[in-house]
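Priority: low. Protein: LRC43 protein. Input follows.
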Amino acid sequence: SFSAAFQEHLGRLGLQDFPCGFGSWNKSHFDARTRPHGGRLGLGTQPTGQEEAVPLGEESPEALVELLRGPRSPWARPPACGPQDQHLRETAVLTPELVCGSNIFRIFTSLRITGKGVEEVDEGLLQLQQLEELILSANRISRITSANLPRTLKVLELCCNAVADLRGLCAQPPPDLQHLGLGYNRLCGPSQDKYLTAQFWPNLVSLDLSFNNLTDLLGLVSQLSSLQKLRVLLLQGNPLALIPTYRGFLVDSLPKLSILDDIYIWPDERHRFHGLARQPELIRSEVRVAVSIGEIKGVPDPSARQQLEVSSEFPAITYSYCVMYEF
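Result:
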């Protein structure tokens, strides 16, 4: 579940271990808060601007933070941890009480958990009440319930999963979502096209549907046209992208679009395809693919045995082969 992966993520950051958290390495620094004229938390200086004396066996906050930032330090940022995670670790040095217990859920505005085998996005995600960006790519999510998503989300990335149905995601979607990443999933049209409208995503600016199994270009465009704020669209890798007039039809049908399949739409291109959206008859629902076989290995050669079977008294032997192509 997401909750289990999140706890594992926190454990990898070591927020309660040296040089983070409370410990013998910074005990007197935080005890100084109880003194009326002690140094300010996390600065290691007195009100006069003079540096506090660091007791023997302890480290100053600056030195502890440097241990987290040094590229060759054994406490440097762990692999696959982003800038938000590094900021969290430094917070655990300067103000560790902010990352203790349930307080930590109020800090996260961005969270990235990729390649951890997450199958279920459970209600534990709702504890992150300030979360604006959630990246759960390269997991095993087949369905997601929007009721378990924070309403504050603006970016949701679900690429490289097994999502085939958007019904649960669109039941109560985050109202302010600006980017939705669904590339490299198992979406099939036209059953899923109806969930890609402004009724569910009124503030969507960027949409990634690349490398799915979407086939109905006309039906998809009729739904996407309701997304008045959509500026970035990725559809490459779908069967509908094989249609010869694919790009021109999209450019003319979605006049507010700025980038299509990672390629900027310039005014001259939009002028060149002007009027194509009013000619749907140019869109064919079939594509021909020619395959030529140069060499086959691992299959017995029938011609070599044919000569032996000519004079044979036994019944003729027929060999059959089945060749399958996966697109």
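Residues 249 and 277 are 5 Å apart (CA to CA). The chain is about 20% helix and 5% strand.
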